[in-house]
Amino acid sequence: MFRRAFWFTAGAAAGVWATTKVNRQLKKLTPESLAAQAADKAVEAGHRLKDFALDVRAGMTQREDELNDALGLHQDPDRPDNVTALPGPRRLRAIENDQINHRPKLSYNRNEDH
Predict the structure, then answer these.
(1) For the chain, where are the E strands, in sequence order?
(2) Residues 86 and 73: beta-carbon distance below 8 Å
(3) 73: nearest Cα among 59, 64, 2
């Protein structure tokens, strides 16, 4: 008699356990639950993408500073942030060369050919 009662109780417990597992899985597969899961994953991916972009930006700034130091470009306090200027003598030479090699712009009117 005790054996039958034991197996009956074990079977009932297994049935309850299986039923609760199936119901939990079915609740996970409802459209509302799937939408919530997708939204959570999208937010998580957005945070990872933002972190990646910030890391890239920091690396770019660091590398730009290294290149500016290597090329002798210095930050001009009169200019807005993140805009570099050539040092004085180089800048003047660049301006002089630009004025010497400056050619007047020729306008082309398509209607003149007709």
Answers:
(1) 74-75, 84-85
(2) yes
(3) 64
